[in-house]
Amino acid sequence: MEKGKVVLAFSGGLDTSICIPLLREHYGFDEIITVAVDVGQPEADITRATEKGRKLADKHYTIDAREKFVTDYIFPSIKANGSYEGYPMGTALARPLIAEEIVKVAEKEGASKIAHGCTGRGNDQLRFDFIFRSAGYDIVAPMREMNLTREWEICYAQEHNVPVTVAKDKPYSIDENFWSRSIEGGNLEDPAFHPPEEIYAWTVSPKDAPDVMEEVRIEFEQGVPVALNGKRLPGIALIQELNQIAGRNGVGRNDMIEDRVLGLKARENYEHPAATVLLAAHRDLEHLVLTRSELAFKHIVDDKWSELAYMGLVHEPLFYALNAFIDKTQERASGFVDLGLYKGSVRVLGRSSDLALYSDDLVSFDSTTIDQNHAVGFSNYFGLQARLFQNLKRR
Q1: Which of 45, 124, 175, 284 is catalytic?
Q2: Does the annotation mark 124 as catalytic?
Q3: Active site annotation includes 359
Q4: Catalytic residue (one of 11, 15, 45, 83)
Q5: Which member of 110, 208, 333, 335 lies 3.0 to 4.6 Å from 223 by CB, making a disulfide possible if both were Cys?
Q6: Do 171 and 207 reside in the same domain of the chain?
Q7: 95 is an active site residue
């Protein structure tokens, strides 16, 4: 049996809620300290976690990390066109920040260990474990150590009078911050099951979206979105307002088979309206201001950045190096992009930048600035080795 203080990463959901009695009964900790970190969850969820933590634990902290989440995690993700297997990451971006804040509390409280409610099947255990172990802490993870099932947890919560919002008939697991909302569990674990509309909260069904396209303009400064439809907004407000606009147009749903870090394939459903629009706009702007070589290499960098971010390896030396390259490219990623939102789709309508590597004069069919005869010499050498190879084949 354990003794001493343990700090628990706490969301107020089923898994972390039953961790409190489990840490007392099955592990024997003398003092349990819960920590809820606000990264843009619904206000009701933060209130619930705070009230539960204060009621069930010996001590509770609620930490507001929303601003830090935007500036230190979401904005870098936009610069890196952060996308894992085709969807904008949300949960993956937030976990390292949550873990770092929990470590600060553990250090302040002199805790002997840190606990979390992650299962042994998902990615979050690795993201948390990496940060906690990097800080020198041993980890307690009741869900995976006791090999618990969702049904057992629901029964255990009922037996211990732990209030939870999950029921056996709707056992969905939802993780939400203002960048992304993920829904999994229950019937959704069947890849062939058609998800009901009730699982969505941020987006209307594309078929129910307005019949008229809605236009938006996103302005960027050095890769960071700073204005929406001509109005300068702080990051949180811009994301929240764009979530509303894109969501009412049915933009930002993903239903996919995702490859988890452990190698398991999982069916995941996501909502990320603002992220979908901002990433589409940012990618387009980069094509206006970066060179062909920069774009080709940055595509490789972005893919690797996204993989490391998805795994939560934010202290991997390569991750620091990739960010340095990305930040250098973003020095010229300033301008605006106009987009049309229509029944679940996003289409770029136009773009402009004072730093554009584009000349309408040079590309125009009506311009004589470029003497087209100059291309003849280039054409003579173009594909030379391939032509020589073809000549060998004809012999």
Answers
A1: 124
A2: yes
A3: no
A4: 15
A5: 333
A6: no
A7: yes
Distance between first and last Cα of the chain: 82
User: 10-residue block means of pLDDT along the chain (395 residues)?
Assistant: 87 92 94 97 94 96 98 98 95 97 98 95 95 97 92 90 69 88 92 96 97 98 98 98 98 96 94 98 98 98 98 97 98 98 98 93 75 89 94 87
Final residue before a domain boundary, out of 156, 175, 194: 175
What backbone torsions phi and psi does residue 242 show, to the nearest 5 degrees? -70, -30
Set 24, 58, 66, 173: catalytic member: 173
Q: How far apart are CA 192 and CA 200, in angstroms?
A: 18
Q: What is each CA distance from 232 to 81, 220, 285, in whole angstroms?
A: 22, 10, 18
> Burial, 150: exposed, middle or buried (Cβ in 10 Å; 0-12, 13-18, 19+)?
middle
Q: What is the pLDDT of residue 350?
A: 98
136 Cβ contact list (under 8 Å, min separation 6): none
What per-residue confidence (pLDDT) applies to 369?
Answer: 78
Instruction: Identify whether 153 is part of a domain.
Output: yes
Q: Which CATH number belongs to the domain containing residue 289 in this structure?
A: 3.90.1260.10
Name the active-site residue from 48, 95, 127, 332: 95
Give the number of residues written for the chain. 395
Domain tally for the chain?
2
